[in-house]
Amino acid sequence: MSTIRYDRELEQYRNLMLPPDRFEEGFRWSSLAGALFIAFLMVPGAMYMQLVAGFGVGPAAQWVTVILFIEVARRAHRRLRRPELFVLFYMAGAVMASPFAGLLWRQFYVQSGPAYGAGVAQEIPDWYAPADPNVLDQRSFMMLRWLPAVALVTFLMFISRLNNAILGYGLFRVASDIEKLPFPMATIGAQGIMALAEQSEEEKERGEAPWRWRVFSIGGILGLAFGVIYVGLPTVTGALLKKPIMILPIPWTDFTRKTQGLLPAVAVGINWDLSNLVYGMVLPFFAMLGSFVALLVTLIINPILYYHGVLRSWNPNDETVPTMYKNNIDFYFSFTIGVSAAIALAGIWQIISGLRQRRRLERAGQLQERFQVADHTQRGDIKAPLVIGTYVLTTMAYILLSGYLIGWHRGVMIVLFLMGFAYTPVISYVTARLEGMAGQVIQIPFVREAAFILSGYTGDVDVWFLPVPLYNYGTITVLYRQAELTGTRFWSIWKAEIVLTPIVLISTIFFANFIWSLAPIPSARYPYTEKIWELNAAMAAIVHSATLGGHSIFREAFRWEYILSGGVFGLLLFFVMWALRIPVLFIFGMLRGLNQTLPHVVVPQFIGALLSRFYFERKMGLKWRQYVPVVAAGFACGMGLISMLCAGITFLAKAVIQLPY
Question: In terms of residue numbers, what domain contains 386?
Answer without folding.
Answer: 8-655
